[in-house]
Structure formats: structure tokens, C-alpha cells
């Protein structure tokens, strides 16, 4: 009886693990790596309809341009006023998902007046999130 329960539990664990792995990208990342927005700060007021600087931070990984496959590297994507996309697909490229495939670690953006969210998501050489995904906390800025 104990063997049957243990086998069933092991089978369920293997299934859950396989299901979890299938929902993230194929490129591995260190478990302790993380991205962060160095500037602006959460809750900060930024100028509306004028360019302001956004600085990208990354720990325990390196930055490499799109198309470059090197262990523990990727490139930044800035998400504006949106949630994280599916982790097993290429990150969209539109006004809410900005790609920095040349390996940039900062940019300037303009936002209309109001409250906005910013978040970073690392992508591999094919713009697919890593396994595990490497992203920043979502911050809020107020454009005035």
C-alpha cells in the first residue's frame, strides 16, 4: 500500500513539474537572478509628454543582444501599463512591450499625463522569457 501511494505521489509530482516546465521558456537562468528598475523610483512623478530616463538593472546575469546565445544572458524588455505576457512565448513587440535587443541598459520614454506602470522582463536570444522567468517588480509612476 505504501509503495502504491508513493508511486502515485511521485507520478503526480512529475506531472506537475513537467506542466510547470512546459509553461516557461527553454533558456535557463540562475534561480537567484532578478531585474530591477533603478530609475525612476516607485511612486515618482515624471514629466508628462516629455522624455525621461528609465534605467534597467540586472543581478546575477549578463546582458547580450538578441540573437546571441550565451549562458546566463538575455536582453531587457520594458512593459508599460500591462501585465507579464505568457512565459512560454515570444514577448510581443508593441507600444506596451518595448524591446531592447541591442543590449541597452537604459532608455528614454514619454508618457501621457496620469498613473502608469513599468516593469522589466528579460528575454533570451529569441525574445522568450527565461526559465525561471527574470523580471522586476512592477512600479507605478505619475506623469504630470
TrEMBL record:
This is DUF4399 domain-containing protein. The keyword Signal applies. It comes from Paraburkholderia steynii. Keywords: Signal. It comes from the Bacteria. Residues 54-141 form the DUF4399 domain. It holds the Pfam family DUF4399. Residues 1-18 form the signal peptide.
Amino acid at each position: 500500500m505504501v509503495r502504491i501511494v508513493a508511486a502515485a505521489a511521485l507520478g503526480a509530482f512529475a506531472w506537475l513539474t513537467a506542466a510547470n516546465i512546459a509553461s516557461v521558456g527553454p533558456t535557463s537562468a540562475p534561480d537567484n537572478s532578478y531585474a530591477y528598475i533603478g530609475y525612476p523610483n516607485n511612486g515618482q512623478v515624471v514629466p508628462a509628454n516629455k522624455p525621461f530616463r528609465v534605467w534597467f538593472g540586472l543581478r546575477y546575469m549578463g546582458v547580450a543582444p538578441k540573437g546571441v546565445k550565451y549562458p546566463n544572458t538575455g536582453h531587457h524588455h520594458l512593459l508599460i501599463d500591462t501585465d507579464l505576457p505568457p512565459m512560454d512565448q515570444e514577448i510581443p513587440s508593441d507600444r506596451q512591450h518595448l524591446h531592447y535587443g541591442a543590449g541597452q541598459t537604459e532608455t528614454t520614454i514619454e508618457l501621457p499625463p496620469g498613473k502608469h506602470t513599468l516593469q522589466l522582463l528579460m528575454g533570451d536570444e529569441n525574445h522568450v522569457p527565461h526559465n525561471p522567468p527574470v523580471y522586476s517588480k512592477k512600479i507605478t509612476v505619475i506623469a504630470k
